[in-house]
Amino acid sequence: MPRAIVDITPAGQRPDEDPSLAVRNNGGVEPSSAPAPAGRREALLLLSFGGPEGHDDVMPFLENVTRGRGIPRERLEEVAEHYHHFGGVSPINDQNQALLAALEDGLRSAGIDLPVYWGNRNWAPYVEDVWQQMADDGIEHAYVLATSAYASFSGCRQYHEDVARARAAMTVDAGAAGGPTAEKLPHYFDADGFVRANADALAAALAGLPDDVRDGARLVATAHSIPDSMAAVAGPEGHAYEAELQAAARLVVDRVAPGRSFDLVWQSRSGPPSVPWLEPDVNDHLKALAAAGEKAVVLFPVGFVSDHLEVIWDLDNEAKGTAEELGLTFARAATAGTHPAFVGSLVELLAERRAGGEPRLGTNCPASCCFVPPRPRPTS
Ligand SMILES: CC1=C(CCC(=O)O)c2cc3nc(cc4[nH]c(cc5[nH]c(cc1n2)c(C)c5CCC(=O)O)c(CCC(=O)O)c4C)C(CCC(=O)O)=C3C
Ligand SMILES: [Fe+2]
C-alpha cells in the first residue's frame, strides 16, 4: 500500500533562501567529527529506491516515484510496460536483500556487531516504517547507506530527504521526536572495492568478446540521465554527478586497460521532451559509433550499483537491440552487486564514519547542494 507522505519542504522554497530548511541533511542531525559514543545502540540502514512486487503494484509505485516531478502520463505507461514484462516485479528488491545478507556477513567478518535494516523511498518496506521498527528495537542512531554512489538530487539529496521524512513521520505518527538520529554515509564512487568490482565485471565482459574484436572494442560507461538543471546544481560547485561518473569510469578502465579511452553516455531518460536532459543517449551513441566504423562495444553501467530494471531493460533489451540492428558486437558488464570487494568497501565506509573525522560529501552537504525544488503542489 502506498504510504501517506509527510511534507518536509514547503513548495517553491529553497534552503539557500531560508536556512531553516537546511536541516534536512541527515534528517536534521549534524554529523559529528567525534567517534561514535560508546554504548550508543546503532544500526546500519540500507536505504534504496524500492520496486514493485507484482502487476498491481506497478502504477502506485510509479506514482510514488514521480509525485511532484512533472513526468508525463505517457512516459509512466511506457515504463509500466517494462515492469509488466517481468510480471510487475522489479529485481531491485531481491538484489537489496542479497546486499543486506552480504553486508551482515561482511560486518561479522570485520568484527562489527551492528544490526542491519532495509528501507525504501518508493515501495515497501518504506523508510518511515523501518524508522518506527528501529525505534521499537531501541536503536538510537542509524548509519544510512544509500544505493547510489554519486552526487545528484536523485542519488544523494533525495536520500537525505527520505531520512528527514521518516523522522518527521515518527514525530507525527508516534509523537516520538524523530526516532533514531542518522548519518548518511558519503559518496563511494571512488572507493577501491566499488572500482574493483566494476573493473572485474568489465574485464569479464571483454573476455567474452570474440578475439578479433576484443582489443578494438569501444568501452562505453553508462549512467542514468538527469535533467540538465539537476546536473547544474549537483555537488557544492555544480556538475559533480558528471565529474564523479567520469572519475569512476576512468578508475575502472585504468584497472583493466590503463589509459584506454572510453565514452560516458546516458540512459533511461525520462521527463517531457521539452526539458533538456544529459546527452547523448546510449542508443544514439551506438548509432554514431557504428557510423564511424566501430565493430564492437562493451557497456559498463558504472552509474548503478545493481542490475535492476533500468539496467536489464534499457541496456540488455533496448541498447542490445540497437547494437544488433547496427551489426555491432555487444557485451554488457555487470554492476557491483554483491562483489566481495564492494561489500568490503561499504563496511570500511561505515567503520570510518564510526571512527569520526571530518564528515565527507554525502554525509555533510551544503544546504543547497543538489537541491531541486519540488514542483508546486495544487493547493486545495
Ligand atoms: C540519478 C538516478 C538514479 C541513480 C541513483 C539511485 O539509484 O538513486 C536512478 C535510479 C533508479 N531509477 C529507478 C526507476 C525510476 N526512475 C524514474 C525517474 C527518474 N529517475 C531519475 C534519476 C535517477 N534514477 C530522474 C531524474 C527521474 C525523473 C523523476 C525525478 O525527477 O525524480 C522512474 C519514473 C519513470 C521514468 O520516467 O522512468 C522510475 C520507475 C530505479 C528502480 C529500478 C528498478 O525498479 O529495478 C532506480 C534504482
Ligand atoms: Fe530513476
Brief rundown of the structure:
By secondary structure, this protein is of the alpha/beta class. The chain is built from 13 helices and 8 strands. The chain has helices spanning 58-66, 73-84, 92-109, 127-136, 153-174, 192-207, 211-214, 228-232, 240-256, 282-291, 309-312, 314-326, 340-355, and strands spanning 42-48, 116-120, 141-146, 181-184, 218-224, 262-267, 296-300, 329-332.
* Ligands present: coproporphyrin III, fe (ii) ion
Strand arrangement in the largest pleated sheet = 2-1-3-4
CATH architectural name of the largest domain: 3-Layer(aba) Sandwich
The proportion of residues forming helix, as a percent range, comes to 40-55%
* Discrete helix count: 13
For the termini, the CA-CA separation is 24 Å
Number of strands: 8
What is the residue-averaged pLDDT? Answer: 92
Can you give a write-up of this model?
Its EC number is 4.99.1.9. This is Coproporphyrin III ferrochelatase. Fe(2+) binds at residues 224, 310. Residues 1-37 are annotated as: Disordered. Its main location: cytoplasm. The chain has 380 residues and is an alpha/beta fold. The protein folds into two domains: 19-187 and 340-355, Rossmann fold, CATH 3.40.50.1400; 192-332, 3-Layer(aba) Sandwich (Rossmann fold), CATH 3.40.50. Helix content is 41%, strand content 12%. It is built from 13 helices and eight strands. It has helices spanning 58-66, 73-84, 92-109, 127-136, 153-174, 192-207, 211-214, 228-232, 240-256, 282-291, 309-312, 314-326, 340-355, and strands at 42-48, 116-120, 141-146, 181-184, 218-224, 262-267, 296-300, 329-332. The strands form two sheets. Strands 2-1-3-4 form a four-stranded parallel sheet, sandwiched between helices. Helix 5 (153-174) links the parallel strand 3 (141-146) and strand 4 (181-184). Helix 6 (192-207) packs antiparallel against helix 13 (340-355) and helix 10 packs parallel to helix 12 (314-326). The longest helix has 22 residues, at 153-174. The protein is globular, with a radius of gyration of 21 Å. It starts with 41 loop residues before the first strand and ends in a 25-residue tail after the last helix. The relative contact order is 0.18. Coproporphyrin III (HT9) binds next to helix 1, helix 2, helix 5 and helix 11.
